[in-house]
Amino acid sequence: MEAKGKKIFVVEDEKDILELIRMKLESAGFVTKGFKTALPMLNLLKIEHPDLIILDLMLPDMDGMEVCQKLKSDKATQKIPVLMLTARTDLEDKIQGLEYGADDYVTKPFETRELIARIKAIFRRSDWESNKNVLSVTKDFIIDFNRYEVWVKGKRLDLTLTEFKILQLLTKRPGWVYNRSQILDYLWGNDKIVIERTIDVHIRNLREKLGDYAYLIKNIRGVGYQFSDEGKNDLKKD
Ligand code: CA
Asked: Could you tell me the distance, in angstroms and rounded to a whole number, from the CA of residue 34 to the centre of ligand 1?
């Protein structure tokens, strides 16, 4: 991911944090615009689009969640990735935020290095997703990343958001083995309130729902999980 020239809008009412974020991002090669409230940013969006928006959850004029929902429900802005800044550590807020379409979260206080790593990860993801919004694993196993839908044999699966996100992560790099801690990072960031074994439960449920395609999600003993169709080839060989 090339940081140079990517434009980021930063909406944060705490002046010191806003300045710090902008300074660090600029020195990392990004171009930034700062806003202390949401409305001026929303107005500017009518004529100018950034590559990403960093959005504080608690703003004086609007709730960050509401801003995010507004952005994600408008066709003109829904593809702009949103990274939420939140002082709340409540897991419920995070789940809710993801449902409103935020692409990731950073919980205050944070290291700017961590923030930049997250931004780069979002760009990698959005580059990938803009190329591949719909993944046809096979002709009857289709994942629509925009709509958060998974279709198997013409039927839409009833996946939880967590199950979908796990599938999203694993299919990003087929063959790549993710350990439980990486999966947790992807799902919840630094707030590892859930224990690693919880992942096993989500994966078990996900596999159950995938039915005939369950074999695509492999447990690599002692390491983690992988999305791979190798087993299918093995079966064919047998
Ligand atoms: Ca704030």
From this structure: 13
Distance (Å) of CA 15 to CA 18, 20, 35, 160, 192: 5, 9, 9, 38, 29
Query: How many Å apart are CA 25 and CA 20, to the nearest integer?
Result: 9
Helix 197-210 / helix 161-172 crossing angle, nearest 10 deg: 90
What is the CA(87)–ligand 1 centre distance, in A? Answer: 8
Spans of the chain, pLDDT less than 50: 1, 233-238
Please give the distance, rounded to the nearest whole angstrom, from the Cα atom of residue 88 to the centre of ligand 1.
Answer: 11
Structural domains of the chain, ranges and CATH numbers in brackets: 7-126 (3.40.50.2300), 134-234 (1.10.10.10)
pTM above threshold 0.70: no
